[in-house]
Amino acid sequence: MSAKILSGTDLSAEIRSEVATGVVEMQEKHGVTPGLAVILVGGDPASAVYVNNKQRACEQAGLFSDSAQLPDTATEDEILAAVHAFNEDPRVHGILVQLPLPGGIEQHRIIESIDPDKDVDGIHPYNLGKLMQGRPDFPPCTPAGIVELLVRNGHDPEGANVVICGRSDIVGKPLAALLMQRGRGGNATVTVCHTRTRDLADVTREADILVAAIGRPEAITADMVRDAAVVIDVGINRVDDPSARRGYRLKGDVDYEAVSQKALAITPVPGGVGPMTIAMLLVNTLTAARIRIHGRHHSG
Ligand SMILES: Nc1nc(=O)c2c([nH]1)NC[C@@H]1CN(c3ccc(C(=O)N[C@@H](CCC(=O)O)C(=O)O)cc3)C=[N+]21
C-alpha cells in the first residue's frame, strides 16, 4: 500500500484564498485592511526564510505586513520596545515574535508583553488559558493547521486515538488541547509522548493518527506506525546535501519512504504542515481584525 499524500501546499492555497475573500469583504464593509507584524531577532537563516514566506503570503492575500529585524545582540528592552511599538500601531492587528529568541532573553517576558488581542500565535498565557477552556480566539498556528489538514481531508479526529510525539509550548501542548476539546476537530483521545516516555514504539503503534513534532530527522520509523495510520510530520530539519540548490535538504521527523508504505495517509516535508502554519497565521490575523471591529464575542 502507498499512503495518500496530504498536501499542505494545496490546502494552504485554498485557505489563503478564503482569507483573501474575507480581506476584501472587510475592506468594503469597514474600510479596514488586516495587518501582520513579524519580529525577528538574530540572523538565523532558517528563521529568515519563514519570515519572508509569511510576508509574501500576507501580500498575496491582501494583508498589510510589516517587520522588525533586530540583531542577535538585541537586549530584552529593545525587543520589548519593538513589541510595544506594534502593540500601539493601529495598522497592525497581529504580532508574531519568531521563536526561539537568542539565549539570555527571558522569552516569557517578551510573550507576555504582546497585546493578547494581537497575539495571532496564540501563545500569550491569556490565549493559552482560553484554549485550555475550549474557547480559543487564536488557536496556535501549527496545531490549527494540523487540525484543518485532518478535518478537510476526511480524517476527523473525533473518537480516534491520537498520539503526539513532542510536548513543546508551540506545537505538542496546544495541539493536545485542540484535539481533546469538544466540537469541530476535537473529541479525540490524546496521548502526548516525550523524551522520558517509556517504550515509545509501544505507544505510537496504538495511534490511529500519529503526530511527529520531535525535531530529529527520521525519528519515526515504520515499526513505530500502525497499519493504515494517518501520519502528520511537523519536522523541518535541515540536513546537509551538497547536491541540493541551497546546500541542504529539508527532512521531516518521519522516515517518509518506509512509513508511506504502511500508512493510510501522510504529510510530506516540505509541502505539508509548514505551509499550513502560515495559512493559519493569516486566518488568525483576519480574526484579530474582526475582533478589533466587533469585539471578542463575534469573532467566529
Ligand atoms: N512564534 C513562532 N511561531 C511560529 O509559527 C514559528 C516560530 N515562532 N518559529 C519557527 C517555527 C517554524 N515555522 C515554520 C513556518 C513555515 C514553514 C514553511 O513554510 N515550510 C515550507 C518550506 C520552507 C523552506 O523551504 O525552508 C514547507 O514545509 O513546505 C516552516 C516552518 C513557524 N514557526
UniProtKB/TrEMBL annotation:
Q: Does the keyword Iron-sulfur apply?
A: no
Q: Name one Pfam family in it.
A: THF_DHG_CYH
Q: Which GO terms describe its cellular component?
A: cytosol
Q: In which pathway does it act?
A: One-carbon metabolism; tetrahydrofolate interconversion
State any GO BP term from the record: tetrahydrofolate interconversion
Tetrahydrofolate dehydrogenase/cyclohydrolase NAD(P)-binding domain span: 140-290
Cross-referenced InterPro entries, in alphabetical order? Aminoacid_DH-like_N_sf, NAD(P)-bd_dom_sf, THF_DH/CycHdrlase, THF_DH/CycHdrlase_cat_dom, THF_DH/CycHdrlase_CS, THF_DH/CycHdrlase_NAD-bd_dom
The record's catalysed reaction(s) read: (6R)-5,10-methenyltetrahydrofolate + H2O = (6R)-10-formyltetrahydrofolate + H(+)
- A GO molecular-function term, please? methylenetetrahydrofolate dehydrogenase (NADP+) activity
UniProt-listed PANTHER family: C-1-TETRAHYDROFOLATE SYNTHASE, CYTOPLASMIC (PTHR48099:SF5), C-1-TETRAHYDROFOLATE SYNTHASE, CYTOPLASMIC-RELATED (PTHR48099)
Q: Spell out the NCBIfam families in the cross-references.
A: PRK14186.1 (NF010783)
Q: What do we know about how this protein assembles, alone or with others? A: Homodimer.
Q: What is this protein called?
A: Bifunctional protein FolD
